[in-house]
Amino acid sequence: MKRKTMTRKTRRLVLIGSALAVIFLAVGLVSFALRDNLVFFYGPTELAQKIQKPGARLRVGGLVKEGSVIKDNGRQMTFIVTDMKTDVKVQYTGQVPDLFREGQGVIAEGVMDAAGNIQADTVLAKHDEKYMPRDVADSLKKQGLWKEGTEAAPAPLRKQ
Length: 160
Known about the structure:
The chain folds into two domains: 8-34; 39-142, CATH 2.40.50.140. The chain contains three helices and seven strands. The protein has helices at residues 8-34, 44-49, 134-142; strands at 40-42, 57-64, 70-72, 76-82, 87-93, 105-112, 118-125.
């Protein structure tokens, strides 16, 4: 009786196949573990064009609309994020960054409610558009609403 042995070519194919299976399994496990941490970034116009279901976790970025900041009971506030075409209302409870003010770049991260507003749990602010997050600046540039070197309204001076 003759015993069959695997040839070098067959062993190589089995090894490559096993390695690919392990790689695909690892990628699948990492993707499964990170699915809850995946947050999509949108500008207000992009957000209005895409259908988002209530409860979707996302980030919206743009400029804080002039005259839109309303503070309730100290820590609660409502403001509008705009890209000069579309506005998104954001409701936030907590301490906003020191650099947060009207006319400045901002990113709000949170959950969309049934009315299309963002219930934010994180607000990030930058000093002016020169230092605006790349995604926000690219979104405004793509729409032709912002150009390099454009500066935001000057911040109010604080008494010392």
